[in-house]
Amino acid sequence: MLEWLWLVPALPFAGFLVLVAAGARLRRAGAAAVGIGSIAGATAIAFAVAASFAGLPPGARVYSQTLWTWMRVGDFEPAIALRLDALSLVMMLVVAAVSLLIHIYSSAYMEGDDGYARFFAYMNLFVGSMLALVLADNLLFLYFGWEGVGLCSYLLIGFWYRDPVNANAGRKAFIVTRVGDTALAIGLFILATRLGTLEIQPLMERAAAQWPVGSALPVAAAALLLGGAVGKSAQLPLQTWLPDAMAGPTPVSALIHAATMVTAGVYLIARTHVLFALAPPVQLAVAVVGAATLLLAGCSALTQWDIKRVLAYSTISQIGYMFLALGVGAWSAAIFHFMTHAFFKALLFLAAGVVILAMHEEHDMFKMGGLRRDLPIAFWTFLAGAASLSAVPVVTAGFYSKDLILFDAWSSPAGGPWLWLAGIVGALLTSVYSFRMVFLTFFGSGRHAPARTAGWRMGVPLVVLAILALVAGFIELPPTLGDRPVFTDALRAVLPPVEAVPARAADLARLQLVAGIVSLAGIGVAWLLYLRHRATLAALIQRPAPSRLHRFWFAGWGFDWLYDRLFVRPVVGFAEAGRRDGIDRIYDVLAWASQAAWRALSATETGGVRWYAASIALGAAIVTTIVIFL
Amino acid sequence: MNATTLVLLGPLIAVGAAVVVLMIAVSIRRSHHVTAGIALAGLLVAFLLLFRTTSVGPRGVGPLLLVDEYAIGFTGLILAATAAVALLAVGYLDRLEDQRDEYYMLLLLAALGSIVLVSAAHFASFFLGLELLSVSLYGLIAYPRTRAEAVEAGLKYLILAAASAAFLLFGMALVYARLGTMEFARMSMTAADRDLIALGGVGLIVVGFGFKLALVPFHLWTPDVYQGAPAPTTAFVSTVSKGAMLALLLRYLPGDVVRAHRALLVVFTLLAIASMAGGNLLALQQRNVKRLLAYSSIAHLGYLIVAFLAGGDMAAAAVAFYLAAYFVTMLGAFGVVAVLSTPAREAGDIDDYRGLAARRPWLAMVLTAALLSLAGIPLTAGFVGKFYVTVAAGSAALWALLIVMMVTSGIGLFYYLRVVVAMYMEPAAGGIGGVPAGRAPLAGGLALAALTVLLVWLGIYPGPLVAFIRAAVAGVA
Predict the structure, then answer these.
(1) Using CB atoms, which residue from B210, B281, B461 is nearest to A601?
(2) How many independent structural domains does chain B possess?
(3) What's the pTM?
(4) Among candidates A73, A601, A623 on the partner chain, residue whose Cβ is nearest the Cβ of B207
(5) Which among A50, A459, A513, B363 is placed 20 to 30 Å from A413, CA to CA?
(6) ipTM of the predicted structure?
């Protein structure tokens, strides 16, 4: 079955082509069948491939498949090649499975939309690009997938392009991530020119062999790669695009801006972890970026009234945890959290989508309430997701992954109490804002009759994701709770485990206890503030100082304001000022000269045969003159 | 004539026999689709015989023809392109009132002449092939004989081709007079180097090539003929006729020889620059798509000359790949024109293409792909071709030519995209001139679909063709 691997990205691409070519003629059911069918096929093959992969002998669990070489010029041989190892296997399975569920959900969610076929075309293109990204054997092909998902993200954020707000949000996402992409491209240039290849495995071997730890080149290359990663994964300082990206349809937010694409930066760093290990300052920067981002985004999430924006900030914050893990060398912990996060965050978005549909496109949580009776499926699944996000001890997947990160942040040689403290404070914020959503939306007094409840096409994905959000953590049981680290063992061949500082490793049980208490305490705080004493809180944020803080956090710590002053206005001003400078004249002259040349040359096309023959004779005279006299 | 020779000449005999069968069939009963079927069958048989020819290996047929991998490769290209033209012609000729069948005879004869050209090793076969090609083309160009433009185009081509043939023939005579041989293999440029008369002869032969390839300043006929001729013929003139001549040029005057000889290098450099600049500039504000493609083909031949001048195996491979890509692309572009045209009215004006995407989305897509390929946008055959040309020219350090190529390609982008914009973004011209909605005829639709797939395929996966070309050109240039 392994040789079928190429079909995994190829099927979604094929679905995309069919939808583009025939989309206008397909009926809704047809478009959905093509869109879902191609993803379902890819998912089925992905699992079949995974089964074959598991059958390989443990020492040789790598499969690469060279599809073709694009062109061959000297040493430059960009191959279209796929590589399946434990890391790409996890990514592939999660991406394919979550995409399938979201596609099924979307077929109902987008029911009334005019752009039904267009929606599935973009979604399929996205899934194909994302699978190409995670399966790529070389960084050039990876970059192709990277840009592909970026394009789809842009197209889908601005899916309802008739409203300029949505189109602008798409544009913002594209431009901000472009900053990161440019850094990534420069990083790839450095790697390609210095090490002579972009194939990931030889590249990493050469880097480790040729570059000493901490020397300038790996630091520069890793820093540039980090630039790309923070752009795509919405980390500081390029996090500003993600909250606005919520302008897209909710399934898009679930798939692209929560479960898959935004974690591409995490994947990139994990994939090139050898390079980051060669650049300790950059790795520290990864950890610091992660810690800072998770705190900032957590605070902002506390203040949003739009349920999707809470989830957006929450995503930024959770990816911050992944970066924190990467920064302390806990590569597999980051990927583990990626997986559990994909499940519970997709679930939260989809459940929120049901709520939003039921509330007639209302996003304001303060206008909701009491929905637990009207929307039981959405309520119970949302509750499971929120519990997992809050890392409720023992029974949720989020607990196991976040706990692993917190423990590694504490015990890794690269970590320490400060990073751990950031993580634990973030955990408190997480469970407060998670249950703030739950209490505001589903509890309290109900005022609305739902317009639409979840049918089976929306209900089944919710239930499946809810189960996954609860049980997916059991494949990595920590020493205190059964000690069966299946997940990290499977990834060990690709991602080296953390060498914990022995003195700190003994603290595991105590750390878990603290984390558990913090998680439950957060829920308690949320209950007090948003259910029990809502009026008190409302009065509190009327006061000047808290109110200012509230507004500051609400606006995402003023980054948009800052960037507007720092970059947007100067650039726009400069462009305005340069509008009538002399430089354009040069191009005007060029255009004018071309036109003039065209006019002059066109005059030679008289249509007269005599003149044509004369021109041949003239040419002959010139040619013979040159040949004879030169 | 022994058995080996028979095998070597197999494709030629098959095409010739197909013409005879056609004449007999037509004399019995006229049926357009049967005729087209016979012509296509003849081309297919000739194509299949090529595989047999390969096994016999490179061998001369007398002093006249040399059948080697190189000739076989180009013969295959010519046969395939002719088949595509024939398929496109079916739908076009269906709308002609009478006398449809002779078109295929002329087409096969023209293909026959082209095959002789790519296998020629001697002035006699060179000239025979050329005339066979040219004479058939007069008929093909003026085929809708009730339409004045077509007849005018045919007449222009007749007069000018005859004039250029005179230069060519005189050049051949001079070379023969001084060097005493008409076989390419025994003509040495070093001998000609010391002989002004022989050199002049080579110069006049270059003029003959320049006319057929439509290089500036021998290009003036191109737009008129392209515009007046029926669209399938235009497709043939822009691809097969030029491709065969270029293949012959590569064999008669390999790039290395040209580079070693300063005067010839100067001549070809000037021709290339003039063609690239002239072709692209002339197309700039052109409102007729057929004329626009004519200018575009002038520019593309300029690019090809750049690769040709690089010399060596790599350049020959670049030329061959570029030609294949150019064939596919131009056939696709003129194929769309052919599907939209009728013998009574050629779809030339850009107004015919406004809003095409809304009325005929598939045709618009094919034409867009072809135009992007002509412009050299990645993931199309044209990009890979241009890339190889650039690499070949770069490794031969032809910087001046490369710069001209880059700048003029940039200009080219403008007029290609203008057509794309017209198709997608501008509303259809009201009432008059607009091409009605409808379906492409089956044969032409199939040809266009195959060409488009090939166009993208070569852009993404050029490996096999490149490997084949490398093997075929090894040792020729």
Answers:
(1) B281
(2) 1
(3) 0.76
(4) A623
(5) A513
(6) 0.91
